Each structure stands twice: as C-alpha cells, then as structure tokens.
Amino acid sequence: MTGQSYRSCKRLDEHFDAIVIGSGMGGLSVASLLSKAGKKVLVLEKHYIVGGYTHVFARDGYEWDVGLHYVGQVHIDGTPLQKVFRHISNDNLKWAPLDDVYDRAVFGKKVFEFVRGKENLRAKFKGYFPAQKDHEAIDAYFGLLDEVSNLGVGYYAEKVIPPFLADIFGPMLRRKVLTYSNRTTLDALRSLTDNQELIGVLTMQYGDYGMLPSKSSFYMHALLANHYMDGAAYPVGGAGNMAATIVPVIEEGGGAVLFNAGVKQIVVQGNRAVGVEMEDGTIIHADHIISDTGVIDTFSNLLPAEVAKKHDLQEKLKHLTPSQAHIGFYGGINESPESLGLPRCNYWIFDNEYDHELSGGNFKSLKDNIPVAYVSFPAAKDPQSQVKRPGRSTVEAVIIVPYDWFSKWQGTQWQKRGEEYEQLKKELADRLMEKIYRVAPQLKGKIDTFEVSTPLSTANFMSHAKGEMYGVAHDPERFRQPFLKPYTPVKNVFLTGQDVMIASISGALMGGILCASAILKKDVLGQINKTLK
Ligand SMILES: Cc1cc2nc3c(=O)[nH]c(=O)nc-3n(C[C@H](O)[C@H](O)[C@H](O)COP(=O)(O)OP(=O)(O)OC[C@H]3O[C@@H](n4cnc5c(N)ncnc54)[C@H](O)[C@@H]3O)c2cc1C
User: Fold this and answer.
1) Which of 184, 202, 294, 326 is the most buried (most CB within 10 A)?
2) How many Å apart are CA 478 and CA 277, to the nearest integer?
C-alpha cells in the first residue's frame, strides 16, 4: 500500500513546511520537488488510494488504470520531461515505449496510423492524402505546430514571476501564445484546408483534451499533438507505479502522504493561510497550502466563503467551464496479451463521419451514435503485467459525455443507485464491447469480467464535482485567464496540477514544477535540466 492511512497517522500535531491537498500528479510532483529541496511536506488525499488520476483499481485478479493511457517524451533520453520524472522518483520510475504506431484512428473501414517521429508522421499523412494541395496543407499544419512548440517560455514565466511583476509584464509575456490560443482548433485547421476528411484525421486526438475542434483552443491542440509526435510510453509496473515511486521520496524528506484524508477547508487568518481543517475537524498547520483539487473546487469550496468574496474569486471562475465527463469500460480477459495479439497502441473509433462537429452535435443522448470511442489494452503496454498477473489481459474503453446526463442520480450512493442506473450501465457495457470487438474481434466472448464507470464514479472517487476528466475546459477563454497560476490572491495558498498548465500527466506535472518554482523562488526545471545528464 502506497502512503499511510490518515487514521493511523500520529504526526498531525506537527508543523509542516507545506501541505498539499490532493495526490494527483500535480500534488505528488510539487510535494516531491519541495521534499528534495529540504521541506517537510504533508500530502492529504481524500480517496482511499493515493495517486489521483494515476491510481489503479483491482478486481477479480485484474488491475486497471483510470486516467493514464500514454505519456509522450518520457521514453526519450534527455528530454526535460524524462529528467523531471527521474528526479521526483529518485530514478525509480521507468517507462516502456508503446509500439511505433501509438494511435490508430478508425473511420468506418479506414484506419489512419499515427507513427512515431515527425517526418514519419508527415509522410504517413501525405500517403493517406496524396493530392498536392493536401500536401501543402499538411506541411502548413506541421509548420504551425513548430511555431507553437517554440513559444511557451514567456507564458510559463508569467505564471511564476512574483504577482506584481506579472501584473506589469504579463500581457507582454502572454502575447505570442494568445495569437494561437485565441483561435479554435477548427478555425486554425480551416485556414489551411477545406478537405473535411483531412481535418477529421488531423484533429482526431480531440478526445485527449475532451473538446470538439470548434470549441477547443488551437494552443491546446498543438501542445497535445507535439507532445505525442515522438511516440509515447506507459509506466513500467502500471500507472500505480507513479505514486509508488514518488511517495517514498516525500517520506524520505521527512514528510508523509496520507489517504482517507479529506480536507474540509483551508484555514485563513487575516489574509494568510495557516493550515487546513480536516473533514473530522482536526486542524493541521503549515506555512504553505497547495491545492491540487482544481481551481474551481479550491476557490468555491476549500477557501472560506468570506475570503473568496473578498477577492472576487467567483467572478474569476465565471470565465471557466468544467471539462466534459466520461464513461469508462474496464474489462479482463483470462489470456495473455501476447497470445491474444494485443497491440501497444490506442484506437480512436469513429463511425464513418470525418466531421467531428456533426457527429458531436448529433450526440444528444446515450441512445445516439457515439462520436468517438477510445480503446486500448493496458496489460499489453506494461512489460511487468505478466509478472504481476500472468496469463491475464485488460481492455479499456472511454467515451466522453456531459455530466448532466447523469445528474438525476446525483446524491445517490455508490453501488446503490437503483435498477434503472444498473440497466443503463449494462447497455453501455454492451455498446462499448461492440466498439472493442471492431478493433479486437479476437476478444469476442472472452471478456470474463468487466466494470463500467460513469461521471458519478468520477465525482465520487475523484471529488471532481461535475465528473470533469480534464479539470477546466480547454477553450480559448481559459488561456486568457492570468489567475490560472500557482499564486492565488490569498497569502500562502498555491495551486498546482492540470488547471495551472493544461490537462495531461505532463501538464499536471508542469503545474507541480511551476508551483515548486514559485514557492522556492527558483527555476526548478532549469536546475533539474542542468544537473541531470
Ligand atoms: C479517462 C482519462 C484518461 C486520461 N488519459 C490520459 C493519458 O493517456 N495521458 C495523459 O497525459 N493524461 C491523461 N488523462 C489526464 C490526466 O490524468 C490528468 O490531466 C492529470 O492526471 C490530472 O492531475 P492533477 O494532479 O491535476 O489532478 P487529479 O489527478 O485529479 O488529482 C486531484 C486529487 O485531489 C483529491 N482531492 C479532491 N478534493 C480533495 C479534498 N477535499 N481533500 C483531499 N483530497 C482531495 C482527489 O481525490 C484527487 O486524487 C486522462 C484523464 C482521464 C479522466
């Protein structure tokens, strides 16, 4: 078991340098970075397991991840991302590359392969779209991605420089990013081509940020596409190994990571945070309070109402929308990935429709065609899966849905939501299995156990009230908000995680790096980059 139960912890009357609320990648990364800088850090996680979206759950001898399917750049020696993961895990977290073809987009009977390496990918796209004007559009698209990859520095700098400097220099530092983030993905693509099929393929990874191209910011799309350009990897030992390798670093630094440890509120005296009040009323003191629960939750629930009012925090939140929720299918098969011939890649399954706006717009209820379904095989991606659970394979499927479709069951209890809900879950399981069999027909009749999660499961286990998969939605408006940074208007209260940067494991990690940089008043990333060879 990673971490320690809150109930058995005897150190609650100690004074900590920092308390981190939430143990997702944003929480664990900042906790590890501060611990390595000599701080005593306490991480408090509400769930009964540590890791946030990197936690895993086990049932009937199988194990599934819940929010990590692939991470880019970590498998390439010397990338800053790989170095940071090495640093925060004391070199204990290892990565296994996926196949060279890491994503497959299935449109009807056609399959488009996303292959590792920019030039390989460009050549693939040009092979699929042989017309000269499509080649020009593809080159222009890669050109745009290159432009975006070179302009983040000012944007990150604004988030960590002291707030009074950010007020003065922020608009200038942000300016270049805004030229890309103010456009929607669809708008950017339409400026390059009117070939709907090409647009459909180039934007097929929209599920990775959970927002249709007409609504999402092109900056998010470009960051994501660049992130996976050199392929992707999966944590050796499974997603649970992320927390398992990072938590000991926090403990070695004199800190602790506690589960079953729900925080009720941040304790603020004057305009200064001095600690947290736990759900059971216990007060724990610290110099810095860092929230990984998301900006909406932090401003609406964790900070006392009068403090939020004083700083107009609800006004700020009016610019943000929670991201969409999801339904997950988790299946187990009593055969090895090898004997089943399961690939180490992800499938994105569309019907015949290349126009994501049309298929997304027509998705008005769970009875309608599913615009996109994600399918992959986690046990195949993890080289240790056959050591831990020999002769067993896993399959997962995800679809994106609005939370509202499930709000009528809000307030019901997990596993006691009633007959109608259970029936709906059964129907969803059948529909998702159909999607799975489209790309892995060999699994037909072999899935011997399965579980379905709904947005209510996310709200229940992850405490994301609207079942958000990706924190705050990645529309252009989000990127215009200067308050999405580690500093908050309340002294000693900081934000970390995906809302500080962008959704994804690396985005949440980056949130942790920026937060540690703000607290330590150091360029943490620059330092790690220099020290680790
Ligand atoms: C289905 C799915 C698939 C995904 N796949 C990928 C992928 O393949 N690659 C990728 O890079 N990203 C992926 N993501 C996105 C990625 O998982 C997230 O962006 C990232 O993990 C968010 O990390 P975080 O630290 O910001 O927040 P979280 O992981 O959400 O952590 C927040 C933590 O705070 C805790 N908490 C909340 N309230 C309290 C409280 N009051 N007291 C104590 N604790 C509290 C929660 O329980 C939770 O553990 C996926 C997400 C989903 C949902």
Assistant:
1) 294
2) 30
What pLDDT was estimated at residue 531? 86
Q: Which two tokens stand for residue 199?
A: 């647009």
Give, in order, the Cα–Cα distances in Å from 523 to each of 488, 513, 514, 519, 529.
19, 9, 8, 10, 10
Model-wide pTM > 0.85:
yes
Pocket test for ligand 1, best of 504, 510, 514 (most atoms within 8 A of CB): 504
Ligand 1 site, residue 181, Cβ cutoff 6 A:
no
Would the CB of 45 count as within 6 Å of ligand 1?
yes
Q: Which residue has the tokens 């936690």?
A: 55
Measured by CA distance, the residue closest to atom 53 of ligand 1 is 469
User: Are the C-beta atoms of residues 508 and 41 closer than 8 Å to each other?
Assistant: no
Domain 4-94+236-319+474-531 has CATH 3.50.50.60: yes
321-353 pLDDT, tens digit per residue, is 999 999 999 999 999 999 999 999 999 999 879
Q: Give nearest CA residue, ligand 1 atom 46.
A: 462
pLDDT, residue 150, reads 83
Q: Is the CB of 70 under 6 A from ligand 1?
A: yes
| 119-145: burial string, b at 16+ Cβ within 10 Å, e else | ebbbebbeebbeeeebeebbeebbebb
Pinpoint the residues of the chain covered by CATH 3.50.50.60. 4-94+236-319+474-531
Which residue has its alpha carbon closest to ligand 1 atom 27? 24
In b/e form, how buried is each residue of 243-262, taking b as 16+ CB within 10 angstroms? bbbbbbbbbebebbbbbbbe
CA of 67 to the centre of ligand 1 (A): 7
Distance from the CA of 184 to the center of ligand 1, in angstroms? 25
Atom of ligand 1 nearest to the CA of 297: 38
Long-range contacts of 202-205 (CB under 8 A, 24+ apart): 202/125, 202/138, 202/141, 203/356, 204/103, 204/105, 204/112, 204/348, 204/350, 204/356, 204/372, 205/103, 205/114, 205/348
42 Cβ inside 6 Å of ligand 1: no
What is the tens place of the pLDDT at every residue in 21-63? 999 999 999 999 999 999 999 999 999 999 999 999 999 999 9
| pLDDT < 50 positions in the chain | none
Neighbouring CB atoms inside 10 A of 76's CB total 15
Question: Distance, CA 22 to ligand 1 centroid (Å)?
Answer: 9
